[in-house]
Design goal:
The protein has 71 residues and is of the alpha+beta class. It is built from two helices and three strands, in the order βαββα. Strands 1-3-2 form a three-stranded antiparallel β-sheet, with helices on one face. Helix 1 crosses helix 2 (47-67).
Length: 71
Amino acid sequence: MTELRLHRDLYTAAAVEGAVKALGRFGAFEVAELGAYHLVRITASSPAREAKLSRELGNYALGLTRQGPLS
């Protein structure tokens, strides 16, 4: 399992959830709030895939945050 912490000042909760939904077919995701962070636990078929998913999720969530409110 890989953990990814995304600061709430930079990533909206809706964007994190949207990224998790978009990438859900590639692994299992668990989202929690931890202080000033969105904590995302990622489980996939290999550590390499988990690492790639963590990078993709961060980028995807940041892109969704920059787009503004999700509909």
